[in-house]
Automatic annotation (TrEMBL):
InterPro entries: Beta-glucanase-like, ConA-like_dom_sf, Glycosyl_Hydrlase_16
Any single biological process term in GO: carbohydrate metabolic process
A Pfam family: Glyco_hydro_16
Residue ranges the record marks as coiled coil: none
Entry GO MF terms: hydrolase activity, hydrolyzing O-glycosyl compounds
Family per record: Belongs to the glycosyl hydrolase 16 family.
UniProt source species: Acanthoscelides obtectus (Bean weevil)
PANTHER family with a match to the protein in the record: GLYCOSIDE HYDROLASE FAMILY 16 PROTEIN (PTHR10963:SF55), GLYCOSYL HYDROLASE-RELATED (PTHR10963)
The protein, known as: GH16 domain-containing protein
């Protein structure tokens, strides 16, 4: 925890060898430079993520209080959608999650992707969000990939959420729920049944579980002969490597 007033709550205690500086919690947030991880995963396995999550959940449970996905990327080198687009290590995405409930999460209106044929797993890359009282802009390697500018009616209007018949919880400001303190979470995960790894994708090995299966974790483990040998446990090529994280206000 930073000792400065108004500073962010930073949840990085589980991650070694991460250098970070926290000065203030919003307005401009240049960096998290994070190196891409080099990975030899050939099965549907890893998810790399840098998230900002609400400190107090003032507006209620997810996604009413918002979620900022500065970076998400799948750790498969050869994962392709049916059209042949690589959605593995050649693709990164930034997203805002927001809605009065999970059913009405309007993340797809604030989701941005960028592909790089050389892959994001072969060196360090810079992921940045600039967060002001009026908008939020995402960058990859200093190239803008998306900008969210809510109208005067805020995210409620942006999502056309009046038609849901639900009460607008975000009357504080047009940036609500993104007008509160958030903390940083750096995450390396595997699997998942939310659809982030869709069915029907192309990959050298088939996905070892079904998203709708009640025994997905068991199916995943039973197929460990497909994915475990691809994990380089003794080197850095399958590790999430982070150079530094910086957060400051201007």
């Amino acid at each position: 925890m930073c000792s400065q007033p108004l500073c962010a709550d930073v949840s990085l205690c589980k991650h070694r060898n991460i250098r970070f500086l926290v000065v203030s919690y919003h307005l401009e947030t240049p960096p998290p430079p994070l190196p891409d991880r080099e990975t030899t995963f050939q099965c549907f396995i890893s998810v790399i993520a840098i998230w900002l999550l609400p400190k107090a959940y003032k507006y209620g449970g997810w996604p009413r209080s918002g979620e900022i996905d500065l970076l998400e990327s799948r750790g498969n080198k050869n994962l392709q959608n049916p059209s042949g687009l690589n959605i593995g290590t050649q693709q990164v995405a930034s997203t805002l999650h927001w809605g009065p409930d999970a059913k009405n999460n309007r993340f797809y209106k604030t989701h941005y992707e960028k592909n790089n044929a050389n892959g994001y797993d072969t060196g360090f890359h810079l992921y940045k969000v600039v967060w002001t009282p009026n908008d939020m802009t995402f960058f990859v390697d200093n190239q803008q990939i998306g900008k969210v500018v809510p109208p005067q009616g805020g995210f409620w209007q942006l999502g056309d959420l009046a038609r849901t018949g639900l009460k607008n919880p975000w009357t504080n400001s047009k940036m609500a729920p993104f007008d509160q303190e958030f903390h940083i979470l750096i995450n390396l995960a595997v699997g998942g049944t939310t659809g982030y790894f869709p069915e029907g994708m192309r990959n050298p090995k088939p996905k070892p579980w079904k998203n709708g299966s009640p025994t997905a974790m068991k199916e995943f483990w039973e197929k460990r002969g497909d994915w475990l040998p691809t994990w380089n446990m003794k080197g850095d090529t399958s590790h999430l490597q982070v150079d530094y994280v910086k957060v400051w206000a201007l």
